């Protein structure tokens, strides 16, 4: 199967589209110290559009900027106050993990994890302003949802029985619910706009994706897994479709996706894949649209047609014969070594004599050897 790719820019016309942006803070606490590299008993980080902007851990106990523009635009007082706030939350987490462990009658020797994530999501408008979309305030315990705030109804939601006691207590504190709603809808949005203004030069620099369409081995011998990978793009909003003869494949066609994931360099990637028959001669394409960079790229995986293969083989055989004659002239009356064909049960080198019988062998071996190389180059296995 051969790959054909083309990219089309949307042109110089100005396209107005909305972008979603987010500001979130994630806190993670362990009930016991974790003796592993990179793990701390308590960590906190701020993320702007999934890009880390500040960081704190229980070992260093200082809130630090993770972007140069955060350091440049915020006074030292901001970082000092942030450090004190993180220290207070570190103590709060320690107390509340103990409460939850006792409530659930868990062993002190086991390690448990309590996480809190809160933040906001906004959408840019045509006039450049940011409109609130939703707020997020949720707790997770040992990898399971524990408690979350319903911003519309101003109530706490307990998905498990162990969280119901906390829900009742927090629902009774009206000032807590009002503060949480106010922070999510106003204060968080104000900070997000401010941070985006600080780093606008870097944040608004859109990076288009590179797209790869390829196949890999499936568990079923007659099948192959067709994968479309878009990577290296920023921001993360992207549209990706796998098509069969122009029709967009969906979940009903068993298309699967890993979703948008972060790369190590603050860009993103998305990988979609579907299992198809090796014998399928339909035309498969991957279409990717990245609005921020105004790029529309489509990559096609052409079917492996027998007719095309025969045409190429017919064109190559005369060339192989000519090359074979040339090689025969060079090898005549000499002794030499020839590479064995792949899969031979003999050793990797074969000694050939110059007897009259071997002249014919000398003629055929170069042709066969070159044919194997050409076959592998033009007709690789799926």
Automatic annotation (TrEMBL):
SMART domains for the chain: IGc1
A Pfam cross-reference name: C1-set
Regions crossing the membrane: 310-331
Name of the protein in its database record: Uncharacterized LOC106700434
PROSITE patterns on file: IG_LIKE, IG_MHC
Gene Ontology CC terms: external side of plasma membrane; extracellular space
InterPro entries: Ig-like_dom (IPR007110), Ig-like_dom_sf (IPR036179), Ig-like_fold (IPR013783), Ig/MHC_CS (IPR003006), Ig_C1-set (IPR003597), MHC_class-I_related (IPR050208), MHC_I-like_Ag-recog (IPR011161), MHC_I-like_Ag-recog_sf (IPR037055)
Similarity section: Belongs to the MHC class I family.
UniProt signal peptide: 1-18
């Amino acid at each position: 199967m051969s790959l054909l790719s083309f990219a089309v820019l949307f042109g110089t016309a100005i396209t107005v589209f909305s972008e979603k942006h987010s500001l979130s803070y994630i806190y993670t606490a362990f009930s016991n110290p974790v003796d592993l590299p990179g793990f701390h008993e308590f960590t906190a980080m701020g993320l702007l559009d999934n890009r880390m902007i500040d960081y704190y851990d229980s070992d260093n106990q200082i809130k630090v900027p993770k972007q140069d523009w955060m350091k440049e635009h915020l006074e030292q007082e901001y970082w000092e106050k942030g450090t004190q706030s993180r220290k207070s939350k570190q103590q709060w987490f320690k107390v509340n993990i103990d409460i939850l462990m006792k409530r659930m009658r868990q062993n002190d020797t086991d390690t448990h994890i309590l996480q809190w994530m809160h933040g906001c999501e906004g959408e840019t408008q045509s006039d450049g302003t940011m409109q609130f979309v939703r707020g997020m305030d949720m707790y997770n315990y040992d990898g399971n949802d524990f408690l979350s705030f319903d911003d519309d109804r101003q109530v706490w939601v307990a998905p498990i029985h162990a969280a119901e006691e906390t829900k009742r207590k927090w629902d009774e504190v009206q000032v807590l619910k009002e503060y949480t709603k106010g922070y999510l809808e106003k204060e968080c949005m104000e900070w997000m706009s401010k941070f985006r203004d600080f780093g606008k030069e870097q944040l608004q620099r859109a990076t288009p994706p590179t797209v790869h369409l390829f196949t890999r081995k499936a568990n079923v011998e007659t099948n192959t897994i067709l994968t479309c990978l878009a990577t290296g793009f920023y921001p993360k909003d992207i549209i990706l479709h796998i098509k069969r003869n122009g029709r967009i494949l969906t979940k009903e066609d068993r298309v699967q996706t890993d979703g948008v994931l972060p790369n190590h360099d603050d860009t993103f990637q998305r990988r979609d894949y579907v299992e198809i028959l090796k014998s399928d001669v339909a035309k498969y394409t991957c279409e990717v649209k990245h609005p921020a960079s105004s790029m529309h790229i489509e990559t096609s995986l052409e079917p492996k047609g027998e007719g095309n293969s025969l045409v190429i083989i017919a064109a190559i055989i005369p060339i192989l014969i000519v090359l074979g004659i040339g090689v025969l002239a060079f090898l005549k009356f000499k002794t030499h070594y020839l590479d064995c064909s792949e899969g031979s049960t003999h050793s990797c080198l074969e000694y050939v004599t110059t007897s009259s019988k071997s002249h014919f062998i000398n003629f055929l071996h170069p042709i066969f050897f070159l044919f194997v190389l050409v076959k592998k180059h033009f007709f690789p296995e799926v």
